[in-house]
Amino acid sequence: MAALADIQPVTSMQALAKGIASASRVSNAMADNNWALLTKVWSGDHRDGQRIKQSVAAALSADELVTELAAAVKRAQAEATRLLTAPPGPREQPETRSHAERANEANVGEGRKVLKQREARGLSAHEAKRVLEEIAPLLRDGVTVDLSYRIMDDD
Questions:
Q1: Which are the contacts of 147, defined by CB distance < 8 A and separation ≥ 6?
Q2: Nearest CA-CA partner of 56 in 17, 84, 48
Q3: What pLDDT sits at residue 128?
Q4: Which of 12, 75, 112, 136 is the most buried (most CB within 10 A)?
C-alpha cells in the first residue's frame, strides 16, 4: 500500500484512477482490434488511411482521461472498414455533348455563363471537402450557385 501511496502520476490522480479503472477495457480493445485491417489501410496511399493512423497514434499517446483509447481504436476500425468497403469515387466521364450543346448550356440567361459544373455521387467526406475547396475561389460577389446535396451515414 505504501508504494501505491507514493505514486506520482504523470498528469493527475484523476487521470491515474481513470487509467486503472479502464485498463481491462483498453486491454481487451487492443487485443480484439482488427490490426490487419488497420495495417492495410495505413499502408495504402489513401489520405484517409493516414488520418486514421494519426488518430490512433494520438490516442495512444494521449491521457486516458482526455481520449478513451478503446473508443478511439474502435472508431478507427469502423472508419477503416468504411474506407475499404466504400464504392469507388466518381470517375470523370468523357464529353459526349456537341459543341453547340455545350454553348447552349453555357449561356444561362443574358450575359451569364456557367463557370464550373460537375455532378458527383458517392463521395467520401474527404473527396467532398476537396470539391468544396476547388470551388471556393469561384465564390465571389455576383455569382450564383445551384446546389443540391445529401449526406448519408451508415448508422
A1: none
A2: 48
A3: 83
A4: 75
